[in-house]
Amino acid sequence: MDISVINQAGVENKFIRLALWKLYRLEVKFSNLKSSELIITKENPKKNIFRVVLKLRTVAETIVLKQQASSISKIIYTLKKDAHDFLHNQQKLIQFYNPA
Question: How many structural domains compose the chain?
Answer without folding.
Answer: 1
